[in-house]
């Protein structure tokens, strides 16, 4: 799937190709009107113009819609244009074809399909489509001369120029998207640095003081000191983490959303390169991991540790959350769901199912617990 920026970049060229076909259709009709009564089969000449008008309508609707259709439709478009060119052998007289050099029935109307091929497949597509139209022009005429060769050079040249233009349009759109993303990242970094200074001067100092004083007092205050220490570590990780970036295509890097969950009991491992997923999925996955880690803190035991592993397998993203706690007794989860306490089923399995993925739970008494979440990466898989 192409990013939205690429599609929008080529939209003016698609509109221009459609407009070119309409204008050249009017010109072709004018040529037939000029030679009306001179053709071997005048009815066939006007029938060809009618077929061209109908095909112009079909292709205009097709190329102006958001998806722009498939490559195969463009190939069919080329075939239709070539077929309409061959009708000239039956409609024009021998003298019109070989002596008077009367324009073929489609005349310059077929130039538009060369432009379409160039927009679709860049320089190579434009050159190939131009060469095919030129070959049919030679074949219908039945001879080769300077004028036909000039037409071939112009057709192939138009294909190459339009192909280069479409390529430059796409590159310009990609550059603009990268620039916009860099500006968003710069703004997010500046805001994060401002918040970091504010947090450091206020919240972090308070937490550090609570931690220190609680340890000095002991007793119940020591427990509060431990909680304050964990929050201090988590908050420092949040401040130091990379900004949460998103692209113009609605994708976000999942890594920083997980890295902020690191503390003295939770270890997070992520790939060195960005793991881009839809922004909504990134938020959901981060929430699920946070909830799983909170379950570890609440139920796995006071000394339990947890490990989060993120993997990008190309067509899917895999998240695993493992702990070395007390585990879950056999049948406990199923019994809770039967009794209507659907915390795990609704919060984790239900949310993952909505994302089109699967969530697998492996646990046993005194053997810890592991959640494995697999989410298909639809955009990556269709490229």
UniProtKB/TrEMBL annotation:
<keyword id="KW-0902">Two-component regulatory system</keyword>
<feature type="transmembrane region" description="Helical">
    <location>
        <begin position="123"/>
        <end position="140"/>
    </location>
</feature>
<feature type="transmembrane region" description="Helical">
    <location>
        <begin position="71"/>
        <end position="91"/>
    </location>
</feature>
<keyword id="KW-0812">Transmembrane</keyword>
<dbReference type="InterPro" id="IPR003594">
    <property type="entry name" value="HATPase_dom"/>
</dbReference>
<feature type="domain" description="DUF5931">
    <location>
        <begin position="11"/>
        <end position="165"/>
    </location>
</feature>
<protein>
    <submittedName>
        <fullName>Signal transduction histidine kinase</fullName>
    </submittedName>
</protein>
<feature type="transmembrane region" description="Helical">
    <location>
        <begin position="12"/>
        <end position="31"/>
    </location>
</feature>
<dbReference type="GO" id="GO:0000160">
    <property type="term" value="P:phosphorelay signal transduction system"/>
</dbReference>
<dbReference type="GO" id="GO:0016301">
    <property type="term" value="F:kinase activity"/>
</dbReference>
<feature type="domain" description="Histidine kinase/HSP90-like ATPase">
    <location>
        <begin position="284"/>
        <end position="377"/>
    </location>
</feature>
<keyword id="KW-1133">Transmembrane helix</keyword>
<keyword id="KW-0418">Kinase</keyword>
<feature type="transmembrane region" description="Helical">
    <location>
        <begin position="152"/>
        <end position="170"/>
    </location>
</feature>
<dbReference type="InterPro" id="IPR036890">
    <property type="entry name" value="HATPase_C_sf"/>
</dbReference>
<dbReference type="Pfam" id="PF19354">
    <property type="entry name" value="DUF5931"/>
</dbReference>
<dbReference type="Pfam" id="PF02518">
    <property type="entry name" value="HATPase_c"/>
</dbReference>
<dbReference type="InterPro" id="IPR050482">
    <property type="entry name" value="Sensor_HK_TwoCompSys"/>
</dbReference>
<feature type="transmembrane region" description="Helical">
    <location>
        <begin position="43"/>
        <end position="64"/>
    </location>
</feature>
<keyword id="KW-0472">Membrane</keyword>
<keyword id="KW-0808">Transferase</keyword>
<dbReference type="InterPro" id="IPR045975">
    <property type="entry name" value="DUF5931"/>
</dbReference>
């Amino acid at each position: 799937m192409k990013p939205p920026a690429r599609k929008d970049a080529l939209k003016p060229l698609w509109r221009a190709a459609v407009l070119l076909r309409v204008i050249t259709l009017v010109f072709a009709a004018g040529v037939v009107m000029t030679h009306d009564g001179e053709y071997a089969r005048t009815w066939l000449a006007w029938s060809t113009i009618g077929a061209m008008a109908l095909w112009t309508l079909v292709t205009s609707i097709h190329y102006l819609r958001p998806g722009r259709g498939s490559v195969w439709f463009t190939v069919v478009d080329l075939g239709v244009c070539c077929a309409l060119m061959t009708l000239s052998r039956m409609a024009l007289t021998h003298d019109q074809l070989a002596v008077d050099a009367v324009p073929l029935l489609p005349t310059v109307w077929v130039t538009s399909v060369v432009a379409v091929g160039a927009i679709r497949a860049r320089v190579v597509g434009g050159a190939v489509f131009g060469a095919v139209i030129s070959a049919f022009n030679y074949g219908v005429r039945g001879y080769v001369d300077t004028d036909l060769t000039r037409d071939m050079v112009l057709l192939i040249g138009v294909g190459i120029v339009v192909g280069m233009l479409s390529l430059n349009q796409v590159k310009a759109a990609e550059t603009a998207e990268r620039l916009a993303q860099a500006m968003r990242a710069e703004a997010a970094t500046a805001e994060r640095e401002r918040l970091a200074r504010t947090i450091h001067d206020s919240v972090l100092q308070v937490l550090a003081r609570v931690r220190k004083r609680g340890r000095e007092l002991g007793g119940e205050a020591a427990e509060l000191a431990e909680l304050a220490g964990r929050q201090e570590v988590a908050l420092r990780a949040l401040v130091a983490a990379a900004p949460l970036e998103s692209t113009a295509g609605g994708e976000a890097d999942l890594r920083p959303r997980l890295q902020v969950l690191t503390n003295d009991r939770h270890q997070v491992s992520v790939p060195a390169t960005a793991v881009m997923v839809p922004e909504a999925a990134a938020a959901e996955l981060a929430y699920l991991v946070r909830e799983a880690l909170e379950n570890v803190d609440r139920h796995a035991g006071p000394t339990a540790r947890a490990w989060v592993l993120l993997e990008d397998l190309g067509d899917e993203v895999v998240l695993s959350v493992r702990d070395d706690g007390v585990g879950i007794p056999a049948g406990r989860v199923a019994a809770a769901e039967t009794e209507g306490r659907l915390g795990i089923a609704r919060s984790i399995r239900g949310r993952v199912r909505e994302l089109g993925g699967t969530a697998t739970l492996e646990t046993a008494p005194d053997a810890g617990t592991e959640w494995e979440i697999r989410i298909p990466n639809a955009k990556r898989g269709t490229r």
